[in-house]
Amino acid sequence: LKSKVTSSSSSITTSSPSQKKITIYVEGVFDIIHSGHFNAIRQAKKLGDILCVGVNSDADVARAKGPTLMPCNERTELAKACKWADSVVPDTPYTPSVKLLDDLKVDFCAHGDDIPYNENGECVYDEIMKANRMKWFKRTEGVSTTEIIGRLLMCICDDKEKMNSTALTKEEKENLKQLEEFSKNRKPVMSSFLATSWRISEFSNAKVPKEGDKIIYIDGDFDILHIGHIQALKAAKSLGNFVYVGVHDDDTVRKHKGKNFPILNLNERVFNLLALKYVDEVIIGAPYKITEDMVKSLKIDVVVEGIKKGGISIYDDAYEIPKKMGIYKSIELEYDLSNQMLIDRIYNNRDIYIKKFLNKAKKDQEYL
Known about the structure:
Elements: E1 6-7, E2 23-28, H1 35-45, E3 50-56, H2 58-64, H3 72-80, E4 87-92, H4 98-103, E5 108-112, H5 126-130, E6 134-137, H6 145-158, H7 160-164, H8 170-185, H9 197-203, E7 215-220, H10 227-238, E8 242-247, H11 250-257, H12 266-274, E9 281-284, H13 292-298, E10 302-308, H14 320-325, E11 328-333, H15 339-348, H16 350-367
Parallel strand pairs: 2-3, 2-5, 3-4, 5-6, 7-8, 7-10, 8-9, 10-11
Antiparallel strand pairs: 1-4
């Protein structure tokens, strides 16, 4: 595993002989990474000086929880983009050991107070706790992968034409019925993500452009972060010194993408972006159509749009002004992921995900 450690930050400093740096290890699946994951990473970083993030392997997660929606390489890129991660280790075991901590040269393991269990029904941190090398922080309430998976599943249920054309087994029909009933009766707290000014300040970079900075602007819905978003933001950052990211509000996304979107609300999407090292500042509820006043007030030098490889812009009306001003630049993206592609991945394993959701959702309600 030591050979798999990849640096995601240049902020690591060498320990002096008189002062040992405390290294913390935090790990997870990070499948559909969200602000709860990012807040966990942020809290773990505050427990020490250097943070190592482990991304659990596909095989281990499949044994413990079922298949992942995103493969390990995609999940690793998302973790590496987090501004609080000093290093990232891919393909880590779902049940970490003291030997793993020693191999990675970390002092303590950290996790939220929602204790995970492995396929044997054992707390995955038993061995580490017995060695007194475990630290805990509070789980972020109001946001969970389970809830997001549920929203994606409901998109499948709403696609009556697709579902009616699919030969469903008796068990699948029963599971779908349970899913619809659960969705109607679940407690509101499961989807009540509360964005406070304190949390915003904890995530914010508190930065403004400096004199002489080349200012970049990129916008979109950024609904469910994926590797394509990371590639676009990284490319935008490489073009200048300060990156503004405009995030469209829920009504705007719904108007252009359909009634089931966005999957994540505006607050959830903003926090995800603020956690990334390629983002300097976020424009909350940014206008769909970029105006000349906006360009001048923010002193934007380049407006960036990410497009499919070999494709063309599909939002000409949104970028009409930057194009006329000669400050528009398109970036071809290697990865063409979208919410619909994630929904299709779930659809192909729908029965597994429905069972998994119903089981985990009940546990989440018990925790809450």
